[in-house]
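Record 1 of the preview.
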Amino acid sequence: MLSRPLATFLFAAFLGFAHANDNLDRGDYWYANRARGAQRDQADRKIADSMTVAYRKALADSSVEEIAAEKLLQALYFKGRFAAPDPADRMQIHTEAKILGEKMHAKYPHNKSIMSFYALNLSLWGKEYGPLQAV
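->
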């Protein structure tokens, strides 16, 4: 039989893992439904926001950080590319993605998904920021 402190720790760890998976699942649900409510090439901003919020919450759990980073970078790419018609808003989204991509690429240098979405987001950031200034 487990001691009470050990049982409490294991239960709390399980709840934390389940919570992160819930956030990943929630983000995956919104990502799978990202075309719902789209108007031509513009996605519904509420869906894009829901997706990124869920992945940000999942990113806070170190046990799923790498997969959450992959998914958040992908979601930020989608959000900036298809759900942000305002240039200032796009700049903010791509700046967040650039910073996150730098951090996660340094932490997980062999993750090809992180590397590719970091590069995609970096190129969109450069486009918004201005090619000469980005260099």
